[in-house]
């Protein structure tokens, strides 16, 4: 195919129009040369005028009549694919000589167009693949993309010119530059030799830029301008001195720790000391553009250095963490020093603006903190009204192996542009050691780069040699500007090395001998950069040595002060303080919980709004009309079902100024089509209404948002969101309770133990649909045994019962686990979550079949002013009137109560069998359980659950019952036998199991003669 046709095919229409538009001046020139009458191309094929032929072609594209008939025929044929040499057709009136001239001209024209296109392709090749040959590895032994192959379309040797049909003689020819490059600066044409040199400078030096996969022309052009513009990477002497000072602090901090605690693990930053000036550069640029709050998350490598030299945590508080004799001064078990986070407000010395830095605590589950940081950043933006993210910014620091290997990274990236989860761009910084613990990257990932996961959201990726501090500084400035300009994620890949092993006690030569032989010979980056600045006179040797001695003195003085510390204060390491919520000593300002009921007027008002459509001309689905009508009838009858109870709880909190956020898969409608918090207009696409936001004039906002199909990432996000303010009810609902399986890391590492490790209170609510409904082993059980096993109340110690025992017990626990059997109790537990004077995670085993069970209804009388959450709902029927005649007391929790109550009634045992419901399972209601067991002193005690014996609640409640009973009476188990799967997949077997345990629990002779 002719390359003239290729021009029309390769260039975008708007590009051709642009070129054609600017060919008018060329057309005037053509006319002045009288090429119309001569029909010859000679004037355009000699010397520097050869590119006028190209201008004539562009003019023809705009107007075919602007050129001679013979050229019109030639261009038309070429565009239609006529092979080279055949595109020309001799006009009838032309002579043989004239025909030969045009044929020669056509061949030269084709060659000229081919050469220009070849140069354009060459430029594009560097833009797309130049990073593959960039000099990124400071050690010079590995390739960052795991492949030493040089793409065949990149000019690295003269002989490769032939790939484009060019030769060495073409190197000095001048070629016009396309509008998709900035390598020319103010010049529009350059010799090929200079074009190649500039391309290699832009794309094959110490920076490798991946961006051509981005499907946005404006964004690609923005990046090209930042990296192709000649001499753009310039720094003032002052900027260079600042960079050197930051490198001094980063390097000398690690040296100081190594001297003082040579046998301690510290997960130092040696080999990537440039991370400190990199982060400070991002923060400086952010501050310059208006950012005043930065939330950061990172793994343990380099954390102490970041705490010291980026966040500016007091050095003596860091150093005292190394003292093994230090005792904890306050609550919690604490954590190792390289897991801790902190919060600090200070002045940015470059911009002289106030800035708040928060480094989130994180366990050794390296990337688990990623969505937590995003949630915290989103919450800060939300509460500050920073919808564009111009005040609050998040930075995530990653390790290379974890970034490629851990799925939560992918989940977090896919939250980045969702409306209810976006933080308007995150800057990701990868500390690329080019190795995992001992695992070579070729065994750790299948993609060329560790950063390839970022391509899924079109985030530009800037690879940079970490031993070139100025290149790092430039890239970090560009990254901050990108985030501010486009509100999108960006990745900075610091290609570095790890000077020691995974930790300082590890021997890396066992597994990477060749790499570490090179590392042992590697000159430190501080030495390299200081020598450079000394050589060019930017700093003097005296200034450099004074900078070193000044920071060494700071470290020594802090070390001396740290020796005066006698106790550790975990509260000094809070990453999310709540000013004004607690008293100065960190304790609640009061230790009581008021009643959680509300007035009937408020109940009626909420009910009336949510049983209607508060927007005019809004068409709802017919089925939804019936649901709203049913709600209206319940309000008239002063009753609530599960969905309405939730509405009442949320709506009343909104009235009191409490922001409510409900997130999770399909939560807007509800998995079981019971909630319908977002109404959809049936006639207008994407027109919605959220009735909860139409309750009161000055109410707090209600946020309800369907999430991506992610549990790990979304639960971490909601955890981070809940950290920002104690005056918010943040709920995450699993589509089914066992969906939390894939979020177990967040539950184990952050929710269950977060307060103990990091003094971090959190009021996050987990709503986990649970219940054996005969639907198979999946989505039946929310695995309550896991949560109960991690509860910290002592099964063997009967607590001292005081007037405020309930609230003190809640304060001492690590989380609250409930399984409510009535909508009213669900209403109360949600409101109690805010009204208690502290915050604890709340685990709710929410129902499925009870959402529509006719007996699962609550009267207004159960939720009006003066009422409160009932930890235990005792027997209230005939059996309670004559407790001495009761032969058996069945304790249970949740849905199984309704099955038990139905069977008891059918067997006419309402006088002989009492049923008592534990609504709050953990912390265990010792006092109320004791009351019930003493009330029925002559009765047998049975625990009945629908879960298998090795699951559910039995292993948790049995020792606590025995503590209450002081081992004087047994409590028998009735339920399904032990099993490996949480439920059977056979409906017939399910019903048989149900019948078996119902028959057993009401067989009053079932336990006679059995030993306890």
UniProtKB/TrEMBL annotation:
MF terms (GO), sorted A to Z: metal ion binding; oxoglutarate dehydrogenase (succinyl-transferring) activity; thiamine pyrophosphate binding
Listed Gene3D superfamilies: 3.40.50.12470, 3.40.50.970, Multifunctional 2-oxoglutarate metabolism enzyme, C-terminal domain, TPP helical domain
BP terms from Gene Ontology: glycolytic process; tricarboxylic acid cycle
Transmembrane segments: none
GO cellular component terms, A-Z: mitochondrion; nucleus; oxoglutarate dehydrogenase complex
Domain of life: Eukaryota
Enzymatic reactions: N(6)-[(R)-lipoyl]-L-lysyl-[protein] + 2-oxoglutarate + H(+) = N(6)-[(R)-S(8)-succinyldihydrolipoyl]-L-lysyl-[protein] + CO2
Cofactor(s), by name: Mg(2+); thiamine diphosphate
Cell compartments where the protein resides: Mitochondrion; Nucleus
Record bears the keyword Heme: no
UniProt KW keywords: Calcium, Glycolysis, Isopeptide bond, Magnesium, Metal-binding, Mitochondrion, Nucleus, Oxidoreductase, Thiamine pyrophosphate, Transit peptide, Ubl conjugation
One Pfam assignment: 2-oxogl_dehyd_N
Domain Transketolase-like pyrimidine-binding: 640-853
Database matches in CDD domains: TPP_E1_OGDC_like
Main subcellular localisation: mitochondrion
Entry EC number(s): 1.2.4.2
Family: Belongs to the alpha-ketoglutarate dehydrogenase family.
Name of the protein in its database record: 2-oxoglutarate dehydrogenase complex component E1
Name of the gene: ogdhl
């Amino acid at each position: 195919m002719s390359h003239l046709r290729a021009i029309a095919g390769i260039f975008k229409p708007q590009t051709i129009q642009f070129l054609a538009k600017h060919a008018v001046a060329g057309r005037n020139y053509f006319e002045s040369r009288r090429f119309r009458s001569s029909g010859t191309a000679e004037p355009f094929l000699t010397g520097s005028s050869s590119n006028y032929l190209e201008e004539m072609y562009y003019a023809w594209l705009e107007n075919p009549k602007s050129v001679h008939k013979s050229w019109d025929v030639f261009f038309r044929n070429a565009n239609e694919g006529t092979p080279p040499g055949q595109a020309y057709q001799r006009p009838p009136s032309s002579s043989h000589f004239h025909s030969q001239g045009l044929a020669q001209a056509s061949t030269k024209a084709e060659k000229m167009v081919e050469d220009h296109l070849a140069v354009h392709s060459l430029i594009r090749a560097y833009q797309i693949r130049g990073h593959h040959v960039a000099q990124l590895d400071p050690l010079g032994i590995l390739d960052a993309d795991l492949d030493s192959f040089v793409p065949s379309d990149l000019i690295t040797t003269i002989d490769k010119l032939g790939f484009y049909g060019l030769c060495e003689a073409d190197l000095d020819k001048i070629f016009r530059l396309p509008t998709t490059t900035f390598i020319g600066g103010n010049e529009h044409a350059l010799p090929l030799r200079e074009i190649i040199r500039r391309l290699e400078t832009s794309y094959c030096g110490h920076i490798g830029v991946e961006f051509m996969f981005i499907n946005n022309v404006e964004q690609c052009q923005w990046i090209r301008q930042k990296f192709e513009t000649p001499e753009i990477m310039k720094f003032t002497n002052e900027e260079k001195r600042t960079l050197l000072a930051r490198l001094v602090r980063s390097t000398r901090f690690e040296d100081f720790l190594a001297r003082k605690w040579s046998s301690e693990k510290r997960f130092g930053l040696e080999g990537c000391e440039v991370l400190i000036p990199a982060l400070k550069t991002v923060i400086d640029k952010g501050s310059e553009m208006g950012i005043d709050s930065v939330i950061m998350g990172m793994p343990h490598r380099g954390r102490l250095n970041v705490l010291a030299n980026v966040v500016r945590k007091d050095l003596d508080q860091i150093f005292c963490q190394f003292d093994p004799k230090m005792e904890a001064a306050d609550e919690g078990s604490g954590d190792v020093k390289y897991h801790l986070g902190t919060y600090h407000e200070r002045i940015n010395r470059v911009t002289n603006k106030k800035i708040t830095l928060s480094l989130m605590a994180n366990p050794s589950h390296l990337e688990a903190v990623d969505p937590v940081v995003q949630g915290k950043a989103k919450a800060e933006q939300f509460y500050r009204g920073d919808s564009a993210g111009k005040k609050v910014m998040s930075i995530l620091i990653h390790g290379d192996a974890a970034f490629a290997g851990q799925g939560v990274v992918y989940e977090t990236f896919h939250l980045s542009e969702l409306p209810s989860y976006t933080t308007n761009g995150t800057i990701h910084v990868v500390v690329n050691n080019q190795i995992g613990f001992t695992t070579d990257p070729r065994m750790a990932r299948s993609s060329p780069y560790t950063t390839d996961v970022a391509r899924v959201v079109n985030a530009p990726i800037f690879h940079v040699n970490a031993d070139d501090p100025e290149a790092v500084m430039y890239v970090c400035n560009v990254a901050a500007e990108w985030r501010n300009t486009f509100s999108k994620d960006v990745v900075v890949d610091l290609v570095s090395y790890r000077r020691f092993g995974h930790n300082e006690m590890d021997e890396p030569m066992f597994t990477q001998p060749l790499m570490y032989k090179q590392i042992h010979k590697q000159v430190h980056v501080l030495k390299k950069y200081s020598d450079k600045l000394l050589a060019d006179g930017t700093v003097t040797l005296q200034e450099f040595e004074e900078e070193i001695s000044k920071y060494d003195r700071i470290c020594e003085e802090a070390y001396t002060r740290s020796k005066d510390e006698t106790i550790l204060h975990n509260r000094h390491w809070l990453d999310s303080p709540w000013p004004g919520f607690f008293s100065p000593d960190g304790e609640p300002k009061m230790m009581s919980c008021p009643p959680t009921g509300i007035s009937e007027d408020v109940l009626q008002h909420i009910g009336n709004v949510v049983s209607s459509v508060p927007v005019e001309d809004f068409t709802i689905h017919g089925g939804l009309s019936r649901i709203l009508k049913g709600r209206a009838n319940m309000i008239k009858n002063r009753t609530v079902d599960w969905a309405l109870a939730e509405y009442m709880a949320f709506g009343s909190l909104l009235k009191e100024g409490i922001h409510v956020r409900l997130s999770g898969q399909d939560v807007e409608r509800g998995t079981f089509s019971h909630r319908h918090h977002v109404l959809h207009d049936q006639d207008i696409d994407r027109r919605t209404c959220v009735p909860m936001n139409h309750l009161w004039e000055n109410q707090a906002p209600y946020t309800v948002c369907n999430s991506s199909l992610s549990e790990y990432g979304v639960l971490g996000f909601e955890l981070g969101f809940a950290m920002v303010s104690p005056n918010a009810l943040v709920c995450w609902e699993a589509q089914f309770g066992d969906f939390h399986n894939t979020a177990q890391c967040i539950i184990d590492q952050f929710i269950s133990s977060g307060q103990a490790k990091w003094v971090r209170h959190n009021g996050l609510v987990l709503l986990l649909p649970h219940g054996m409904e005969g639907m198979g082993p999946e989505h039946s059980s929310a695995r309550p045994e896991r949560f109960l096993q991690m509860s910290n109340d002592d099964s063997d110690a009967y607590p001292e019962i005081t007037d405020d025992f309930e609230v003190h017990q809640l304060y001492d626990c690590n989380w609250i686990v409930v399984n409510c059997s009535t909508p009213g109790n669900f209403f109360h537990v949600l409101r109690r979550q805010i009204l208690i004077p502290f915050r604890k995670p709340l685990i709710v085993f929410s129902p499925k079949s009870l959402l529509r069970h006719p007996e699962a209804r609550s009267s207004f009388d159960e939720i009006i002013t003066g009422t409160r959450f009932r930890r235990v709902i005792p027997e209230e029927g005939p059996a309670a009137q004559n407790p001495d005649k009761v032969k058996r007391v069945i304790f249970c929790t949740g849905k199984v109560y309704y099955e038990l109550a139905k069977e008891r009634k059918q067997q006419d045992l309402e006088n002989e069998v009492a049923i008592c419901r534990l609504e709050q399972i953990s912390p265990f209601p010792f006092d109320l359980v004791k009351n019930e067991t003493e009330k029925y002193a002559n009765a047998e005690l049975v625990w009945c659950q629908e879960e298998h014996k090795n699951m559910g609640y039995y292993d948790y409640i049995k020792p606590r019952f025995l503590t209450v009973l002081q081992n004087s009476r047994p409590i028998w188990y009735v339920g399904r036998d032990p099993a490996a799967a949480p439920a059977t997949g056979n409906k017939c077997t399910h019903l048989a199991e149900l019948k078996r345990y119902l028959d057993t629990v009401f067989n009053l002779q079932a336990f006679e003669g059995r030993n306890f």
